[in-house]
Amino acid sequence: MHLPTPLRACVAGACILAGLWLAGCSPSLNWRDVRPEGADLLALFPCKPSGPTRSVPLAGAPAKLTVLACEADGMTFGLSHADVADPARVGPALQALAAGTAANLGAGSLPPPQPLEVPGAAAGASGGRYELAGRQPDGQPLKAQMLLFSRGTLVYQATVLGNRVAPDAVETFFGSLKAGG
């Protein structure tokens, strides 16, 4: 079927507009405010997170660790928090979370953390930002960005991981975190 040139242009324009509208209706990253129960924290997630709370050994004593996670655009976004109840356990708990994540990823030794301020978080409490490279159980490469911080006796770990990690998504996720928010 042959359409006259003005009609072809109109049909082409309508197809482009429809494509843009459909792309706008199904974004791969649909950011939303999340206030995890018991976390005293505000975060933006690109998907609806969910997850368990379970008792785990952390820095020499049991702690209830809550994990919220979801997957969007080929990346997993996670936020964990636990109340370690004793200010002396905050630093060791953050170090244990970092070392445990590096070990789980098969990332080898933990690199020195890069500083990243989280509004409302304690300054200099063994936290920081880490960039890790490891392997999935099937041997495929895995990249992770991890941020550890605390507020009082609450310790937090925010993580983005996948075979590729989009820097803008990581910056949006980490930049949205506000302790005491």
Number of spatially distinct domains: 2
> What's the story with the biggest beta sheet?
6 strands, antiparallel
Compute the gyration radius: what is it?
Answer: 21 Å
Terminal residue distance: 60 Å
Beta-strand percentage? 35-45%
CATH topology of the largest domain: Protein Transport Mog1p, Chain A
- Regions with pLDDT < 50 over 5+ consecutive residues? 1-26
Proper CATH architecture of the largest domain: 3-Layer(aba) Sandwich
Number of strands: 9
Amount of helix: 25-40%
Shape: globular
Number of DSSP helices? 3
**Which structural category do the helix and sheet elements fall into?**
alpha+beta
Largest sheet, order of strands side by side?
3-4-5-8-7-6
Q: pLDDT average, as an integer?
A: 83
Protein name: Transmembrane protein
What can be said about this structure in brief?
By secondary structure, this protein is α+β, with helices and mostly antiparallel strands. Helices cover 26% and strands 36% of the residues. The strands form two sheets. Strands 3-4-5-8-7-6 form a six-stranded antiparallel sheet, with helices on both faces. A three-stranded antiparallel sheet has the order 1-2-9.
